Amino acid sequence: MRFKVLILSLVVLMSSNLLADEVIFKNGEKLIGKLVRLEGGKLTFKSDMIGEQTFDVSAVKNFTSDSKIDIHLPNGAVIVDSIQSAGDGKINSDSKTINISEIKSINPVKVPPVKWSGNLNVGFTSAHGNTFSQSGSFGVDLKKDDTKNKTVTDLGALYVIARSEGGDGEKETTEENVTARGKKSFFVSDKKYHFVSGKFKKDHIADLDRRLIGTLGSGYQWVKNDKTSFSTDLGLAILHEKYVVKKTVDTDPGPGVTLARVTEITQNDELSANISYKLETKVNDKVKFIHETIYYPSFNRISDYYLSSSAELRANITDDMFTSLKALLDYDSTPADDSSTTDTKYIVSLGWGF
Fold first, then answer.
1. Would you say 98 and 81 are in contact if contact means Cβ atoms under 8 Å apart?
2. Residue closest to 198 by CA, chosen among 180, 211, 182
3. 329 within 8 A of 309, measured Cβ to Cβ
4. 3-state class (DSSP) for residue 2
5. Are 69 and 57 spatial neighbours (Cβ–Cβ below 8 Å)?
6. Predicted confidence band at 308 (pLDDT cuts at 50, 70, 90)?
7. Are residues 262 and 334 both part of a single domain?
8. pLDDT at position 208 over 90
């Protein structure tokens, strides 16, 4: 019985050695084990002696593999085969001889396909009886994290409308605006990135025909883990605003009143800084807090600035559904005539993630 066990052990040991991969270095050293991958000029090899280690491929004279490996060439071709040595700096598969220096990668880490993720949220309130009011909102947020190309794309839009009953009993629109944003970040390291972004807003009640902001800048990801992410941005922005104000005025300064509707158009173009931060943190397994502030001070006058801030508590109902309480603040130090500097909104909504 013991003799059979000994024979079986020897067979297993010999089989594992026969199937072992081998790497030979230019200094004459040799390792036997498993070729894990070759990527970015680095060869990763695992052996029982030293565990998994990574070496510069320039230090490698040759290597072999008895098991099939995926060899990726610069022209996009992929060879799936075992390999043998074909002399210094060359390997040989069943189909061709390949220079090691010409190999783009072997068994590269498979990057999952890039997909968009995001959420849709809808809010609606209605009150009838002694008072009448209705409000609604629709928002969308989209994100694409392209790990392979080290880019992150963020897109979003929000539409808000509200109606209420005035003192004369007439129903009128008290709020209607739309905002849209987009940002693309290009990471140059694990934490540092450059970005380009754009924002648009139109507000009928505030007489804002359009506000366009384009920004170029750099950012830093101070914290990023499963619980919290925190980043800051600094950039140069071009801010364009156009206000269209319709008024009823007395066009005749003499006796009597002569009323006429006039339209006043004011436009403003400024070069400003972009200073911002964004925080996302999980309060617990079901609740998430998201806070972002962007500050645009004009280079002409520091007292002339535009600020946008948001804070959101998001609670999961199911894996795909959540409820959200969001507060939005816009502050414009130079608004249109008869318009407030501060615009604040509170939105309760139901959302779906995907």
1. no
2. 182
3. yes
4. helix
5. no
6. very high
7. yes
8. no
Q: Considering the chain, what is the average pLDDT of its residues?
A: 85
Tell me the C-alpha distance between 65 and 84, whole Å: 7
Cα angle 229, 233, 238; round to 5: 145
What distance in Å separates the CA atoms of residue 324 and residue 158, rounded to the nearest whole number? 14
- Lowest mean per-residue pLDDT among 28-37, 194-203, 229-238: 28-37
- pLDDT number for residue 108: 86
Cα–Cα distance between 216 and 41 in angstroms, integer? 33
Q: Give the angle subtended at the CA of 263 by the CAs of 247 and 239, to the nearest 5°.
A: 110
CA distance to 83, 192, 349, per residue, from 242 (Å): 68, 35, 30
The pTM is what?
Answer: 0.67
Our count of domains for the chain comes to: 2
Residues 294, 256 contacting (CB under 8 angstroms): no
- Give the CATH number for residue 183: 2.40.160.40
C-alpha 111/C-alpha 113 separation (Å) is: 6
User: Which domain does 44 fall in, by range?
Assistant: 18-106
Are residues 195 and 331 both part of a single domain?
Answer: yes
pLDDT of 82 > 50? The answer is yes
Dihedral angle, C-alpha 244, 247, 252, 255, nearest 10 °: -160
Helix, strand, or coil (residue 117): strand
Q: What is the pLDDT of residue 254?
A: 60
Residue 9, helix vs strand vs coil: helix
Q: Which residues contact residue 319 at a Cβ distance below 8 angstroms, ignoring those fewer than 6 apart?
A: none
Least reliable range by pLDDT among 124-133, 178-187, 224-233: 124-133
